[in-house]
Records
---
Amino acid sequence: MKPVGAITRGTTNPNRLRRCDRWLAGPQGWRLRAASAPPIVVDLGYGASPVTAVELRDRLRAVRADVEVVGVEIDPARVAAAAPLAGPGLRFARGGFEIPLPGGARPTLVRAFNVLRQYAEADVAPTWALVCARLAPGGLFVDGTCDEVGRRATWVALEASGPTSLTLSWRLAGLTQPSEIAERLPKALIHRNVQGEPIHAFLSALDGAWARQAGHAAYGVRQRFVATARALSDEGWPTRNPDRWRLGELTIDWAAVAPGGGQ
């Protein structure tokens, strides 16, 4: 089967995806622990350097020692360059969104960062459906975007039934206005940050709550951010994982921010 997708720019940096990785090892770690067989995790479109696949293997093995990470890339030259790093719990394969695993194996987790960002918005929904159809029972697909050094990141979490949540993660030091993360929204949302769209309403509410919690700045940016997230929740925004707020991480139900109010 011909790989599904197109070769992307492939740029990456060490530790760039740490924010998503710690979320996968934290709130989503139960998916690895619940797998009856050694879970397979796919780093889809890892790029010109396989460093993110190596990091993902190391971080998730702290959750479950028998996890196997497969770096999948559509560019055969990148697969060949990564091959020398293959070893216990890590291998590489050529492929795309069809997720080519031997014997029809299904992954427990699929992480694709800064991949769909380089596609057209119209490509997102069918690609999501294709990847989600390949997931193991209880599996998760993460479609995300981050800046060059991983200080700002956002990702959509999808189960077999479709998208379930949006997570935004900031480096709190130096944060001036939360909505600055808008330029790193996933492809499904980045063109939707306009008046009348739910994601615009959410980011506006986030900035408003941040401004109202300015008094907490005397106690540090972390305290201000936690107060901001709590205020959003009190206003009725369906936030999740309040224990993660102190990390500069905010997760909200997908239905609250989906294009047009639902997808």
Note: The chain has a mean pLDDT of 95.
---
Amino acid sequence: MADPFAWDESLLRRYATRGSRYTSYPTTLAFREDFGEVDYQAALARSNASGRPLSVYVHIPFCRNICFYCASNKVPARATRLAEPYLSRLDREMVLIRQRLDTSREVQQLHWGGGTPTFLSLDQMSDLIDRLDARFGLSDSRDRDYAIEIDPREADVLTLRHLQALGFNRLSLGVQELDHRVLKAVNRVQPRALTEALIDEADRLGFRSLNLDLIVGLPLQTRDSFAATLEQVIAMAPARLSVYHYAHLPKRFAPQRRIRREELPSPEEKLAILRTAVTMLTEAGYVHIGMDQFARPDDSLAVAQRQGSLQRNFQGYTSHADSDLVGLGVSALSRVDDVYTQNHTRLAAYETALDASCLPVSAGLRLTFDDHVRRHAIERLLCDMALDLDALGERFGIDAPRYLADALSRLEVLEQDGLVGWRGNRLEATPMGRLLIGHLAMAFDAYRPSEPDPTDTNPL
């Protein structure tokens, strides 16, 4: 395999410290607990004047089987009837939000995440869609972006046909790995045939885009085993691939205590796995969009990146992020007007708030002018792999080099290491810098903690 980059392993090891994926700036670490329901209600009301389209995220926390690597907010459950009280509370949350929100605005994006959204029965999925349509008015536009995360063990061809009938046009399959030994070690055994059957049916039904999730750093994984997985995945020809980094934090996440540390790949082997992933996917024609995301050149993400319109939100890269994002469900995040909010992360607290007819906000933040400037700088870096300081200065009416002098000073070391260069007042990531784009973004982060949140990481 020919390397697409002049791979510098010593440099990658030096920058192996964890950093944020910046699905928001400021990140959730900066959210304040004294930000509450009244602040969110005011933001919902202010957002109506913008006329921006809406994006709705729904968190379904239930999982029938807990994977040992998982760091998501989930609720173990076996029977789908256990989701009924939760669905009722989701509807109550919608009602409370609708009281402040102009719902004539188009719901351009819809995303169901988890947990395992396909834990729900087909009838429950239909019921939830009906409630969303009744409260917000869902779109039938061809340009809508309606996606759902799928566990191949919890879906079949009938599920996909039902999802298409409900209006979903994008799918994300949690594959993680195809090596049986690795899957067994993380309690996620799923035959390859399940994944292939869903991919074939999704293609036959004409879903607009299919994303496969993979994880690097799982127990018993090697560069050779992951190469074998990638060879099979590439043959499946998904439009998008997300290659996530596993962070082993057993003290924080109980399921991870079932993973044997001695079976995890060494740091050197993990770098070799990453090198294999980048090389094989690039040779197969995938574009490394940035961070953890790869896409085919004709996919909407790659097209948006070439056009300079790619954006980023709590779900990652998107071509439809110029909207107000309303998050529903336990732990859900929202980005409305100039605020971020997060719902209670504990199911009991979420339920208690809604039973008292209160929005279940646990923390949030209203952005300052400085936050807006730095958020834009970080977003353009992550999406364009470059930052035009002249355009930034014109957008915000500032002398950008002077205003961001602290960030530019921090970039000097990265420039010396060959990760970034200048073309006039345009900052551009080098090929190696693209692999470490999160570290370039960190230079602009005014909230940078000495110890970043290790669950919000990816070396790509």
Note: The CA atoms of residues 353 and 360 lie 5 Å apart.
---
Amino acid sequence: MSDDYPTVEVITGAGRRRHWPIEEKLRIVEETLQPGATISAVARRNGVAPNLLYRWRRLMTEGGAVAVQADDGVTGNAEVRKLEERVRELERQLGRKTLEVEILKEALGKARAKKPSLLARSPLTDGSR
């Protein structure tokens, strides 16, 4: 009677993600680059989800083995240049603001030094300001 019913597998406990060593990732990605190989077939053969394999392959082509190993995104050269230019512009603005602050501090110091003599000659010395 038990032959009539399909078997059911019960999974208990928390499932954990598999950790793929860098060498294994590189081997699988290289396998997809072989002529006639499809990502779906390679993924099935190695027990990897096709979308994960597509991601590894994209990371490998964009950033090499370092990106695949770190599982990080890759920033393109154009974006890096744009960000570097933005940093340079912000540094220039910071330099201008620093110079303005120094000039204003110097002017404030000179004004404070002249203030007592100006108050003595001021017509408003009777306190009716």
Note: The mean pLDDT is 78.
---
Amino acid sequence: MKSNLQYWLVEHPSILHFSWTEGQTPASTPLFLILALLSYLSLTLLLTRLPLSPLNPALLKPISALHNLTLLLLSLIMAVACTLSILSSPSSTLCFSPHTNPTGPLFFWAYVFYLSKILELLDTLFIILSGSLRRLSFLHVYHHATVLVMCYLWLHTRQSLFPVALVTNASVHVLMYAYYMLCAVGIRPRWKRAVTDCQIVQFVFSFAVSGRMLYLHFSGSGCSGIWGWCFNAVFNASLLALFLDFHGKSYAGPKDKRS
């Protein structure tokens, strides 16, 4: 089984010889990124201002469940595939050489991860169509919009450390989309807090690993994509602050303390 996974997720010719080339790889241009972000933000603003009636739950919930199942399976595949790619990589994934080319399995899965973030934008549409606008927080929209920029920069700058971030983020999303999928089919799991806790741990872990990357960067010939990492670090810091605030407001009540 491991050899089959190794072939289909790492050594398949389409993956092994993948190359990110701006202007040639689909969705690789800055213009595409800008248009995608503007479309997402403008449509979100427009749809929240229109007097839309909530979509019939009998229709919306199966579609939402399928969407969440798709992202759950995709996240699981990306987490496993990138882990195998890291183990197969001859160079350090914490610090790419400044002359690294965006080719091979690691960059293939970074590209798939980038495209998956476009698919995740549908989360916002399902919230709007359900009529639950109170769930459409600043954190939700900010996270979905900015993570797309972050993933683009992983590829654009050939950013060191992204494989570790991809594995941890995809792993957390397996748990998160499993929760959302169960909710969509009428099952309310009792581990919602665990999803938020894992997201917070993910951000803390990213800063801990970044310390090692920075040491390698300043003690050697440098690591590729350091400016992309700077954006990533600021973004993660802002998300950590927002998630801590969300965690405090959502789980600090007396009822939670008794559970």
Note: Confidence is low (pLDDT under 50) at residues 254-259.
